[in-house]
Amino acid sequence: MYISQISVENFRNFKGSNNIVEFNEGVNVIIGHNNSGKSNLLKALDLVLNYGSSKRLSIDDFNKEVSIQELKEKSPKVSITVTFAESANEVEYSEDLITVSTWLTQLKSPYQAQLTYVFYLPEKEEAEYKRTLANIASDDIEQYWLAIKHNFLRKYKSNIYGGNPDFKQVADTESLKKFDFQFLDAIRDVERDLFTGKNTLLREVIDFFMDYEIKSDKTKDKTKQQGEIEQLKKEFSTHASSLIKTLQRRMEHGKKEMLSYANNTGASFGNAEPDFDGHIMDTELYSALRLIVKYQTGISIPATHNGLGYNNLIFMSLLLAKMQKDASGDYLGSNAKVFPILVIEEPEAHLHPAMQYKFLKFIRNNIKDKARQVFVTTHSPNITAAVSLDEIICFHRKNDNTLNVGYLGKAFGDDLKSKAYVQRFLDSTKCDMLFAKGVILVEGITEQLNMSLFAQYEGYDLESSHISVINIAGRYFGHFLKLFDSDNKHTIHKKVACITDLDPVRKENVEDASFEKCYPYELDQDKEKYTYKSCSNDLVGKYSIDPQKKELKGNIACFSQKIGQGKTFEYALAYTNPGCKLIVTESISNSKELSQLIDSYKQGKTLDQMLKLLGKKGKENSRIAESIAQYVGSDNREHLIASRYLNSLQKGENAYELAIALEENYRKKNIENFKVPAYIKDAIAWVCS
After folding, report:
1. Which end of the chain has less Cβ packing within 10 Å, N or C?
2. 197: pLDDT confidence band, cut at 50, 70 and 90?
3. Is residue 578 within 8 Å of residue 601, measured between CB atoms?
C-alpha cells in the first residue's frame, strides 16, 4: 500500500476543490518557487495522517480567495482527502489491507481507500451564520472573516472520515494510530530533541536497541530471548543497587543537613520527613550519558558542539531508528505501527551541498525497512539534481494563483530518449529552470552571460521577475520543452522563451550534396546552382505568434532573427550595432579592421569603400565581397560588418569580455548607444509580462 494522491480543498493557498497531487511509492521530492504551497501540502498530510497533532484550524488556515457573496451563501469548509492504493507486489490480505479495510472505495484489485479530514461548521449553526453575515453592510471582505472568527470559529468541528466522505463514517481510532507520521519541519531544535537526558525519543530508541544482538537473533525463540534479556536486567539491577548504596553512604551526613531545612519551611509535619530512595533502569542510565562524536584523531567532543547540519543527520538517523522500533510487532505487539511515513521540510536549511547528497543517500539506503514513503520539500537545486525525474513533483502557481502540478518523469510520455537526456543534463545550475517563474532557454554562453544585462538595457529585471536563463549548449530545445508544453499532461505551465538562431543554409544541386551554412544576403542568389533554406531550425515557426490572433498558442514562445537578416546571435549583435565599437572586445581577432569598418560606417561611406578595408584576401573574405556585391538590399553595409564580426570571434573569451563591457556601459548610461537585437527585446518583454 502507498499514498497515491491527496486532494486539498480551501486550505491555505489551495484555492477551490481542484487541487490534486499524485505521489509515487518511495521517495517524493516536492519542489517549486516560494509560496507555491509545498509546506502547506505537508501540513495537509499532517492533518489527516498524524493522529497526535491538533486538528483545529485558525481563521487564516481557510483559503480567503472567495467573494463576499460566496461567504454569505455558505460557511467556509476545509476538506483534505488522502487516497491509498495497492502496491504492485503487495501480499494478498496484507496487514495494510486489514488496516484500511473499512475505508475502501474500490474493492477490486488494485484496491483503493480514502481518509478525509474536514473542518466545518455544523449544520445547526448554518442559519445563524447566514443571518449574521447578511447583517454586515460592508464591501470590505475582512469584516466578514472577522465575524466568522469571533462568532463561529469556536463552533467549528473537525472529523476524519473513512471511505466515501458522503457517508460520514468516522475513521476508527485504532486504525488511525497504525500510521507513524514523523514530520521534521525546517525550523527545529535538534539539540533539545536529541541530546537531553530526559528526551523521550532518545530513551525509547535506547530501550529498543538495548540487547539488540539477542532481540535480532532469529535462531532463538521469543521465550529464550526474553529470558536472556531478563537475566541481564537482573545483573544490572544488582550492580545498580550497589552503586546507589554507595551514593547513599556518601550523602548520609549531607542529606541530614540539606533536609534539616524542611523543619523550618514546614515541609516536615505529622512525623513525616522527606528522604531519598529509588532505583535506576539500564535504559535510564544509558540515556543520561552524553552523546559524543569521536573523530579519527581520537579526540571526543560532545555532539552539542557539532554544527546544526551534522546534528540534523544524527537526529534523522535516530528518528528512523525510532520508526523501526514503533513498527516492531515483537516489541509493541498489537500497538505496532503499520505504515511509517517520513516527512522532511527543506533539509537544505541546515546542510551544505555535500551533506545534502549524503542525506539523500542515507534516505535511499534506509527507506525500505524504516519508512514506507518519504516526502521531502526543497528549494535546493543540489537535491533536485541528485534525484531521478520520476521522484520530482513540481509546484507552479499561475498568474491567477491556481496550482499547476508537474510530474517530471511522466511529462515525457514514451520519449525515453528526451527523458534520459534531460536527466543527465539537470545539474545544480540547470535545475534553476524548475524553481523559476519563467525561463529563457538560450543556445550559448554569450547569450546566457549577457541576457540579464540585455534586460536591464530594456528596463526589465530578470532576477526580480524570477526569470532563469539556461544555456542548453546547442539546439536541444525539443528535449526540454517536453517538461513545459501545456498542451501535454503532467507538464509545468510556466512561460518559456526559446532564443534561437535561424542559421540559413544552402547546398549544391548535385547528387549527395549536403547543406552548408550561408549568409542571409546569399539566399536565393543562384538558384540554378544551389537549394536554399532561410532557416534550418525546425523550432522556428512551431512556437511562434499566431498570425491571425496576434497571440501565442501556448506557454512556449520561440524568438529568432528576422528571415533575410539573421544568422546567429553574434551576427545579429553586430547587425543591430554596426556603429558601436563596444562589441569589439580585446580577444576578438581582426579588431583593427573591424574598428575601421565601424568608423567608415559611421562616416557614411559606401559599400565599395568599406570593402576596400577588408583584410588579407582569404577564401571567406572573397566569398563575402563577391556575395554582398550582388545583394540589392539597403542594409548591405550592416551585413558586411556582421559577417566580419562573426568570423573574428573566439566565443569563450568574447562572452566574458562583452559582459564586462556592456555592464560598464550600462553604468555610464549607455554612452556607446548599444542596442539590444529586436528578437531578444521581444523575448524579454514577453517572458517578463
Report:
1. C
2. very low
3. yes
**HSE toward the beta carbon, residue 158, CA cutoff 13 A:** 15
Cα dist from 551 to 241, 548, 555, whole Å:
86, 8, 11
Per-range mean pLDDT, top range of 66-75, 86-95, 369-378, 645-654: 66-75
Q: What confidence tier does 235 reach under pLDDT thresholds 50, 70, 90?
A: confident
CB neighbours (10 Å) of residue 686? 16
- Geometric angle at alpha carbon 97, from 91 and 98, rounded to 5°: 115
Which residues have CB under 8 Å from 594's CB, separation 6+? 584, 588, 641, 644, 645, 648
> How far is it, in rounded angstroms, from Cα 517 to Cα 566?
12
Q: Are strands 20-22 and 2-9 parallel, antiparallel or unpaired?
A: antiparallel
Taking the C-alpha atoms of residue 107 and residue 87, their distance in angstroms, rounded to an integer, is 14
Of 388, 391, 380, whose CA–CA distance to 356 is shortest? 380
**Does 240 or 383 have the greater pLDDT score?**
383
For residue range 251-302, what is the model confidence (pLDDT) as tens digits?
Answer: 777 766 665 665 555 555 555 555 555 566 666 555 555 444 444 444 444 4
- Give the integer Cα–Cα distance in Å for 161 and 167: 8
φ, ψ at 104 (rounded to 5°): -65, 140
Determine which helix (DSSP H) or strand (DSSP E) holds 286, and give its type and residue range: helix 282-287
- Secondary structure (DSSP) of 13-57: TB-SS--EEE--SEEEEEEESTTSSHHHHHHHHHHHH-TTS----
What is the pLDDT at residue 294? 44
Task: Tell me the β-bridge partners of 469.
Answer: 440
The number of helices, as runs of H, and strands, as runs of E, in the chain is 28, 23
Q: Is the pLDDT assigned to residue 305 strictly greater than 60?
A: no
CB 387 within 8 A of CB 355: no
The count of other CB atoms within 10 Å of the CB of residue 661 is 21
By CB neighbour count within 10 A (0-12 exposed, 13-18 middle, 19+ buried), where does 542 fall? middle
Cell representation of residue 325 = 522500533
pLDDT given at position 167: 94
Q: Looking at residues 345-358, what average pLDDT do you find? A: 81
* DSSP state letters, 111-153: PEEEEEEEEE--GGGHHHHHHHHHT---S-HHHHHHHHHHHTG
Q: What span, in angstroms and rounded, lies between the C-alpha atoms of 660 and 649?
A: 16
Residue 198 has pLDDT above 50, yes or no: no
Q: How far is CA 156 from CA 54, 148, 294, in A?
A: 14, 10, 53
pLDDT of residue 185: 81
Residue 532 main-chain phi, psi, to 5 deg:
-115, 150
Enter the pTM of the model: 0.84
Strand, coil or helix: 209: helix
d(CA 105, CA 181): 23
Angle at 498 between CA 494 and CA 500, to 5 degrees: 175
Instruction: Return d(Cα 493, Cα 438) in angstroms, integer.
Output: 9
CB 628 within 8 A of CB 521: yes
Task: Say whether 567 sits in a helix, a strand or coil.
Answer: coil
**Spatial CA neighbour of 165 closest among 208, 131, 117, 202:** 117
